[in-house]
Amino acid sequence: MARQERGVRTRRNILETMAGLINEVGYEAATISMLVERTGLTRGALYFHFSSKEEMARGVLAEALTSEGVREQEFKLQEWVDIGMLLAYRLPREPLMSAAIRLSIDAKARNVLGTRWPDWVDLGRDLLTEAKRRGELLPHADPWSVAKLAVGSWTGVQLVTEALPESAELVEEISALYQLLLPNVATAGVLARLDTSPRRAEQLARSIPGAASETVHVPAT
């Protein structure tokens, strides 16, 4: 059991180190030699856990697709909002998540690794489909179309927020996005009871074991 726990910690350390390199220098410039130097592991130890740099990067990508911290709510629309708000709160604070987003928007990395955007759209579509079944969505709101639009808009807001130093914190900008989007898809009775506040995202994040609560500066690539 102790050996298994060490293996889990080592694997996590490799992923976190890989994420740090991606945030600092980008996927293409990150090398196994850099990982060896920063982790203190041998190449053999690295390759015991991951067969290649590409597999490590895919492990980082997998971290972004999560509903961790989201609890069952009265409205499925609230759960859908909570997922996006939580990601916005955690991304600037957790290098693994920020690196996963960088991999998704890096055209060269995307050609090699693929992207999790289709998975995000599918996750949103499933929640929105259930929301529509429960009468939470307006008749014209198509779950797949709304999910796709939301993922694209979320990503765009994240990129612009990072590029413009005068922007508010990402979670505040994403809160504003939902406040603009939801009146066009949610029924009036449900809309009035949805919480899109950044404070809610922070409270949900604090329930996640090991989740960071302080802002971590992520250098631009």
UniProtKB/TrEMBL annotation:
PROSITE patterns, per database record: HTH_TETR_1 (PS01081), HTH_TETR_2 (PS50977)
Molecular functions (GO terms): DNA binding
SUPFAM superfamilies: Homeodomain-like, Tetracyclin repressor-like, C-terminal domain
Highest taxon of the lineage: Bacteria
InterPro entries in UniProt: ArpA-like (IPR047923), DNA-bd_HTH_TetR-type_CS (IPR023772), Homeodomain-like_sf (IPR009057), HTH_TetR (IPR001647), Tet_transcr_reg_TetR-rel_C_sf (IPR036271)
Pfam families reported in the protein's UniProt record: TetR_N
Residues of the HTH tetR-type domain: 8-68
Keywords tagged on the record: DNA-binding, Transcription, Transcription regulation
DNA-binding region: 31-50
Protein name per UniProt: TetR family transcriptional regulator
Organism in which the protein naturally occurs: Streptomyces boluensis
